[in-house]
Amino acid sequence: MPSIATLKKLLTGTPGFLPGPISVSAGAGTPAGTGVTATEYGDGIFHKTVLTFASLVITMTDATTAGSHGTQKIYDFPAGQIGILGVVTDLHIVAATGIGATAAVVGAIGTAAVGTDNATLLTTEADIVPSTAATLTDSAGDFNAIMGNSVAALTDSSGGTSGGDTIAAIVAATDVTAAGLATTKNAIATLAAKVNALIALLTGAFKAFDGTGTAKDAVLNFAVPDAGSTTNSTLTVTGTVTIHWINLGDN
C-alpha cells in the first residue's frame, strides 16, 4: 500500500513521478518555434513530451513545378541515442492565399527539413511520422497521424495466396504445370506476408536515432504539389504533437 506522501506526489504531479511534469534538468529536450510549448512527463528515463502549437506560422515557399514546401523544427532532443516509442499528431492547419482552398497538402515529421525538390516528403523528411494526407477543405484541414514504418512494405505481385504460418513444399524445377506454378506463387506470397509483418513489428513500434554526435531534432514538414500552389504562402498550425521517447545513452 503506497504511503500518503507517495499518493500525494502521484496526484499532484511531483517531478520524478510519471504522471507529473519533469524539468529539463531531468533529461528532457527543448521545444522550438514561435508559439510552440512543451509539457514534459516522465521519470528522467522514459519521457512523454506534449508539444502544443498556438498558431505556429510556417512559411511555404513555392518552387514552381516542384510544388510548395515549408518546415519548422519543433523539438531539440538531448544528445544521445534517442529511441522513439510512439508519436501522435493532432494538428489543424489553415492555408493563406497562394495555396488552393482544396490543395492536397501532405505533412510529416522527420529529423531533417524538407527539401525543395519534391512534394511527397521522403527519407529523413519523414522518418519519425510518415507522409500523411492533410487535404484542405475551404483552405483548412487536419494533420492527424501516428508514427509508422520507416521501411517500405513489400508489394506482393506473385498472384499467390498466403499460407499463413506454413510455406508449402516447393515443387521440382521440372514441374512446369499450372499446379506447380500455383504452389510456388503461394510460397512467395506467404513469405512476403511474413516479411511485411516483421517490418511492421520492428519498425512501426520503435525507432532509434543516433544523436550521440549531433543531437537529433524533430522537424515538422509540409508540402503541396504544383497544382495546389501558385505563389509563396503560409500554413498556420494549431494543436498538439505527443512524443513518447527514451534516451538510450550518450558517449
Which key phrases capture this entry?
single chain, 11-stranded antiparallel sheet, globular, 11 strands, mainly beta
Radius of gyration: 23 Å
The low-confidence runs, each spanning 5 or more residues with pLDDT under 50, are none
- Give the averaged pLDDT, no decimals: 85
Shape: globular
Strand share of the residues? 35-45%
Instruction: Give helix and strand order, one letter per element, not per position.
Output: HEEEEEEEEHEEE
Total of DSSP H or I helical runs spanning 4+ residues: 2
SS elements, strand count: 11
Number of domains: 1
Descriptive notes:
By secondary structure, this protein is mostly beta strands. The protein has one domain (14-152, 205-247). Helix content is 14%, strand content 38%. It has 2 helices and 11 strands. Strands 1, 2, 3, 4, 5, 6, 7, 8, 9, 10 and 11 form an 11-stranded antiparallel beta sheet that branches. The longest helix is centred in the last third of the chain and has 27 residues, at 178-204. The chain is globular and about 70 Å long. The mean pLDDT is 85.
